[in-house]
Design a protein that fits this description.
The protein has about 350 residues and is an alpha/beta fold. The protein is built from twelve helices and ten strands.
């Protein structure tokens, strides 16, 4: 796993706990929550830190949008690292899903002026200058994460947030270099990751981790298909991403946009040679064992929210990598998905 030299394969996945102070400052509740839950995991991903106020997901989210945030973020990184866990912070821009309360009733921004399928709030279309400004905001947030002592960042490109809005024909009807063809719709993510990699290199931090979280499919008309996100995963691998995190309701879920019963995580294992994190419904010893057989990184969310000692109590024993082996038919299915769409 190169940079992911972890004490174990368990991860506290990014959780939207909304415990920060009203302005996004790290709270004592944030510190205590992560102090307790980082004890049993090899990596703790602090969820939904907003890179700008106009991209905030919800009240109570942590801010990484200002230089004055570094002091509180530094305390949070240290609390996690004292338990010998990697401290990763997730960078988020919600785009058209920004909370109206956090942006004070202003219009949210998105690649196109199209409301989300479940919303009547029409966002404002981003200008090209505004797009590059947002990439600057991500880079500045990464610098703050480094200054605070975090071991890495994760880009939140899942759950309909801004990077996914650029990828999806459901949200992106642009006619310029950021819209239309799949290559154009990938352009924002490509430029973003290239900029972040250059920023890491600028400061010479060779162990700093850069992860990416994505949703494998969108179920709405015109939404992302599995074949497109598998191609995205391959692009991210070429760009030097250190791990990929799949946002799944169930770690064993099979595709809905392609006819196969092969679990989605196995298709990603066939498409890329990257550590992949799964989570979702891993809530007993048997499912924990299954997840360990399927994936390199195992995200434990709800059980650790309820009980910080859940992993210790479950006493799962040593993990096995046997299930990572792919059959020829599974590899064939994966190839047909991402090459045939």
């Amino acid at each position: 796993m190169d940079k992911l030299n972890l004490k174990n394969r368990f991860v506290l996945p990014p959780l939207d706990m909304r415990m920060a102070l009203f302005d996004g400052t790290v709270s004592l509740n944030d510190l205590e929550f992560h102090r307790q839950r980082s004890q049993a995991v090899g990596m703790d991903v602090v969820g939904s830190a907003f890179i700008s106020t106009e991209g905030n997901t919800a009240l109570g989210s942590i801010s990484i949008s200002r230089d004055e945030d570094v002091e509180g973020l530094s305390k949070l990184a240290k609390v996690i690292q004292r338990n010998h866990a990697k401290a990763i912070i997730q960078l988020v821009h919600a785009g058209r899903l920004a909370s109206p309360q956090t942006i004070f009733g202003k219009k949210a921004f998105s690649p196109s002026a199209i409301a989300a399928p479940w919303s009547q709030l029409v966002p404002q279309e981003l200008t090209r200058d505004a797009i590059y400004k947002i990439i600057d905001q991500y880079a500045n947030a990464l610098k703050r994460a480094m200054a605070a002592g975090f071991d890495g960042v994760e880009i939140h490109g899942a759950n309909g947030f801004l990077p996914q809005q650029f990828l999806s024909s459901n949200a992106n009807h642009r006619q310029d270099q950021f819209g239309g063809s799949l290559a154009n719709r990938f352009r924002f993510v490509k430029l973003l990751i290239q900029r972040l990699q250059a920023t890491v290199s600028q400061f010479g931090n060779q162990t700093f981790v850069l992860g990416y979280r994505l949703s494998p499919e969108e179920y709405e008309d015109g939404g992302l298909k599995l074949g497109e996100t598998l191609q995205l995963a391959q692009l991210l691998e070429q760009l030097g991403i250190d791990y990929l995190s799949l946002s799944l309701r169930d770690f064993m879920v099979t595709p809905r946009t392609f006819d196969t019963q092969v679990p989605i995580v196995k298709l990603f294992n066939a498409a890329v040679d990257l550590p992949i994190m799964v989570a979702g419904q891993i809530n007993d010893a048997n499912k924990l064992k299954q997840a360990q057989e399927l994936s390199s990184l195992i995200g434990i969310g709800r059980p650790l929210i309820k009980d910080p000692n859940w992993l210790t109590k479950i006493n799962s024993g040593k993990s096995t990598a046997n299930g990572l082996a792919l059959t020829a038919s599974e590899i064939g299915v994966a190839q047909s998905v991402y090459q045939g769409l």
